[in-house]
Amino acid sequence: MRPVATLFLAALAAATVQATAPTCSADDKCPEDYPCCYSGMCGVGTYCLGGCNPLDSYSLDSCAPEPICKNQTYTFTNMDNAILYDHYLGNATEYDWVYSGYPKIQNDSLWLTMPNGTTGSLFALNHYIWYGKISASIKSSRTKGVITGFILMSDDEDEIDYEWVGYNLTSVQTNFYFQGIENYTNEVTAAVSDGDTFDDWHTYTIDWKPETLEWQIDGVTMRTLTRNSTYNATAGRYQYPQTPSRLEMSLWPGGSEAEGLGTIEWAGGLIDWNSTDIEEYGYFYAQYKNITIECYPAPAGTIDDGDVSYVYTSDSGLSSTIELSGNSTVLNNLEDTGLNMTAGSKVTASDSSSDSSSGSSSSSGSSSSSSGSSKSAAASHGQWAVQGSLVAAVAAVVALSSL
Ligand SMILES: *[C@@H]1O[C@H](CO)[C@@H](O)[C@H](O)[C@H]1NC(C)=O
Ligand SMILES: *[C@@H]1O[C@H](CO)[C@@H](O)[C@H](O)[C@H]1NC(C)=O
Ligand SMILES: *[C@@H]1O[C@H](CO)[C@@H](O)[C@H](O)[C@H]1NC(C)=O
Ligand SMILES: *[C@@H]1O[C@H](CO)[C@@H](O)[C@H](O)[C@H]1NC(C)=O
Ligand SMILES: *[C@@H]1O[C@H](CO)[C@@H](O)[C@H](O)[C@H]1NC(C)=O
Ligand SMILES: *[C@@H]1O[C@H](CO)[C@@H](O)[C@H](O)[C@H]1NC(C)=O
Ligand SMILES: *[C@@H]1O[C@H](CO)[C@@H](O)[C@H](O)[C@H]1NC(C)=O
Ligand SMILES: *[C@@H]1O[C@H](CO)[C@@H](O)[C@H](O)[C@H]1NC(C)=O
Ligand SMILES: *[C@@H]1O[C@H](CO)[C@@H](O)[C@H](O)[C@H]1NC(C)=O
Ligand SMILES: *[C@@H]1O[C@H](CO)[C@@H](O)[C@H](O)[C@H]1NC(C)=O
Ligand SMILES: *[C@@H]1O[C@H](CO)[C@@H](O)[C@H](O)[C@H]1NC(C)=O
Ligand SMILES: *[C@@H]1O[C@H](CO)[C@@H](O)[C@H](O)[C@H]1NC(C)=O
């Protein structure tokens, strides 16, 4: 029911924020000093990279330009091309993926895990896709309250989803959003035949074109959305996903006590942390392999000033106002922003971290929602359960439990 989207954004929100981090929205944009709006909070550095919302930021160029689409099949034999989200500086050539939580490689697959009491894992592609065909072989997690995700998410919150709710292993939910606008009729359940979603590999495809969007399972089209069907006559616009998007894979606790009632209900109820997977392995898990990205060309008429990045040029966030640019996507360091990406001295990704103590991905198995600050942080961060505190210092950080 509820967009998983904001959860992802929040998982990546961290890095440097003010002790009293300004909030942001379309009507209340970020101040120049903290120009980047990320999941409703203003900041610099990580806030200006993937997930930075140009429409709610200080200006359209506050967020760093978005790395352009790359044709690629990803297999998983190691994590060399992945980096912890708050070490990433925007160079998608150097690191294809950013992550948070507890991912690991096993059996030539990417396993996203959710240890007992944690908020799970997120794995996001740094190359944006502006129309394309995206396929992966996936085995979902299982158990009520446990949500597996495979979605496309744009920086102004256009979204195309597959979501598996762990109580039902013979279906997957398909959904889409335009600029984050909730509409329950957009969610459609698709049956998965031939075994189930946990025990068996199935190939899930999103075929996203400017005029049509298809969800395909094992090569069979389960749902088609036409752009025309999304026309809003009052606003004079198509409410169709249309901006460059990142692929995000996730395993998260929809049935966590930290979630709203609607989300818990949608997830099938509260998670049983004593269930089989926790007892046997110590975590819930979802598996992904051979992910293929085929980039479609930019829509006819797109202004083409280069082949490095996508940039927003209008507050409308409409497809017709996205441009191709030659501008770099890389910040010199985590104090920089899109307003001047080379203001600070250059550091390497391996040196960079908003907080070295929050850097380790898998050493702390702490539980998610026990700390005092958790609730407020979770609320303002769209409820990705956050542990830790806003440290009152110049470079305060939000330390996420799962990091
Ligand atoms: C990005 O990383 C690649 C590979 O490490 C490197 O060749 C390139 O110079 C980097 N680009 C920038 C802008 O730092
Ligand atoms: C790894 O794959 C093999 C062969 O398909 C299978 O027998 C084994 O159970 C898998 N291991 C795990 C941990 O899934
Ligand atoms: C799972 O979803 C399918 C399709 O909506 C439905 O037919 C089936 O009854 C559901 N199963 C469970 C256990 O909820
Ligand atoms: C949801 O979308 C449908 C189909 O496009 C549309 O008819 C309906 O008005 C929308 N409802 C809301 C509440 O936005
Ligand atoms: C969408 O609507 C326009 C105008 O009515 C029409 O020209 C076009 O063929 C339609 N496109 C599709 C894919 O149906
Ligand atoms: C259509 O656009 C108008 C004006 O922006 C907005 O108030 C309305 O909620 C939109 N309708 C839908 C179904 O999204
Ligand atoms: C899990 O089982 C243990 C031992 O049986 C019990 O003490 C505990 O309360 C259970 N925890 C939950 C979260 O159900
Ligand atoms: C998971 O954690 C809860 C709370 O600490 C505990 O009650 C439960 O026994 C744990 N589950 C397992 C299978 O260890
Ligand atoms: C991906 O893996 C699945 C399951 O092993 C296999 O059926 C499929 O052919 C593979 N696809 C590609 C493109 O390698
Ligand atoms: C990706 O591959 C397709 C053909 O499969 C090609 O048309 C397209 O130009 C390629 N795009 C990029 C960005 O390499
Ligand atoms: C590219 O960067 C230059 C220099 O920072 C800037 O003037 C220009 O507006 C940028 N172009 C786009 C399309 O954002
Ligand atoms: C970015 O900041 C550096 C260091 O202050 C300065 O030298 C450079 O001129 C600035 N670049 C732009 C485009 O403002």
Radius of gyration: 19 Å
Largest sheet: 8 strands, antiparallel
Ranges with pLDDT <50 over ≥5 residues? 1-18, 355-403
Bound molecules: 2-acetamido-2-deoxy-beta-D-glucopyranose
Total count of strands: 24
| SSE series | HEEEEEEEEEEEEEEEEEEEEHHEEEEH
Structural class: mainly beta
Arithmetic mean of pLDDT? 85
Looking at the chains present, what oligomeric state does this protein adopt? single chain
Label the overall shape.
globular
Individual helix count? 4
Helical percentage:
under 10%
Percent in strands: 25-35%
Which CATH architecture of one domain would you pick?
Sandwich
CATH fold naming of one domain: Jelly Rolls
**CATH class value of one domain:** Mainly Beta
Describe this structure in words.
Its EC number is 3.2.-.-. InterPro entries: Beta-glucanase-like (IPR000757), CHR-like (IPR017168), ConA-like_dom_sf (IPR013320), Glycosyl_Hydrlase_16 (IPR050546). It is found in: Cell membrane. Pfam families: Glyco_hydro_16. The chain is built from 4 helices and 24 strands. The protein has 403 residues and is mainly beta. The strands form 5 sheets. Strands 4, 7, 8, 10, 15, 16, 17 and 21 form an 8-stranded antiparallel beta sheet that branches. An 8-stranded mixed beta sheet has the order 5-6-9-20-11-12-13-14, covered by helices on one side. Strand 15 and strand 16 form a beta hairpin. It starts with a helix and ends in a 23-residue tail after the last helix. The site of one 2-acetamido-2-deoxy-beta-D-glucopyranose has 5 residues, from strand 14. The site of one 2-acetamido-2-deoxy-beta-D-glucopyranose has 3 residues, from loops.
